[in-house]
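Two proteins, back to back. First:
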Amino acid sequence: MSQDWESGVWEVDLAWGRRGARDAAARGDVMVVVDVLSFSTAVATAVAHGGAVYPCGKQDDVTAIAQSVGAAVAVHRRNAVAGQFSLSPLSFCSMQPGQRVVLPSPNGSVCSHYGRHIPALFAGALVNAAATASAAMIECAKHRQRLTIICAGERWEDDFEQEGMRVAIEDYLGAGSIISQIAAPKSPEAILCELAFSASRETLSELLHGCCSGRELTERGFRGDVDHAQQLDCYPVAAVLSNGCFVPWAA
């Protein structure tokens, strides 16, 4: 398909981090937030098991939110004990239908916060790429809006010249897995992301385990989370934000 990139007119775009989420939301785009390790994979896992996830940022009162909706509060991954939910996607594999969890996250959850009032906001990852791509484009057609995929990225632990976001290749590959299943005019950024995924499809496991975020999780004892997050399309469900929480999308 020929694409006039200089016109700046396309249906699928790619952006990074909180600024990208803010700008896409200001335009009223349909958005997919991709935070493969681990927010969006945790959300996809929870929703696939019939649960609901309330995203919140560091400024939110998580206890108050949980009390208002009758939800549990996810704890830090390293502090979780058996039966507790955390940013570890594996902790949601035992979720029961109807359970609710408030899930703080400095990346995917904060990016989701910007999209509270747009036509549709999804949490997408490798594990639900196909379902997310299909649902997102249906919502785009319904609302006559374009789609922006947000790579949430990671945060640097130190503040170097106010550079807060760290590029995360796992999010880039997750975004590419979604974009690759969409047949629509795409921005140069989206095209390059798709090509990166397509070229890396046979080595996803090695790349996710070897990337900075994957190594960090493995060193902290959470290799299983990386194993789980690398599974392409293991969940045939899209997670959409509705009334403040992520639930299964229905046409």
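And the second protein:
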Amino acid sequence: MPFGFIFDPLYLVCTGLGLVLTLWAQWRVKSTFARFQNQRVLSGMTGAQAAAAVCRAAGVSGVTIEEHPGMLSDHYDPRAKTLRLSPAVYRGSSIASVAVAAHEAGHAIQDARSYPALGLRSKLVPLTNIGARLYMLPFMIGFFLASGSKAQGHLGVLLMQIGIVCFAAVVLFQLVTLPVEIDASRRAREVLAKAGIVRSEAEAKGVASVLNAAAMTYVASALSGALQLVFLIVRAQSASRRE
């Protein structure tokens, strides 16, 4: 955003709320993971073993499980059919490690079952990457042109609308991600319980706490994106009325 937007009350409200939500969600997932990272599961399974067990229990085969550098960098790659787990999750035998690993295995189950939202999210990735990189350029050029002559105003509003469409693709991706992540956690909890990987009520509650905290990061991201989209739309409408 240009310097002038820093003093825009609507910008301050939208970005401020989005930032607070994002920071709160990040703090919650890190603190929850740290809390349950020191509580070992009764089964003694590592995250890698738990992920493999979840896949087997669900009848999913052909999934590779790899150690991946970084903290909480865990993810499932549907193209390579590979679960990539951070060192703390891959090697750890804590409630937190098992919960995160099982969640990623839940994505592998989704892939094997052809879960529609997962397929849609994968298809949206290229469009989302383009939208995230490009939306600001046409919007800002349009913002400055909208205050010029009538011809410039027409072009400015059009460019702002193009920027909004680009960013809307990002928000759509974030919204589609929500049911994907929630469903993966649901599948993980079900298989963990049925396969006997989680053996006590305390472990089940710990797993639920870790997965719920992780889910909040996606909720916060979607809300933050939606707030920014609202700001862009309102400012484009203002420019259109002036024009």
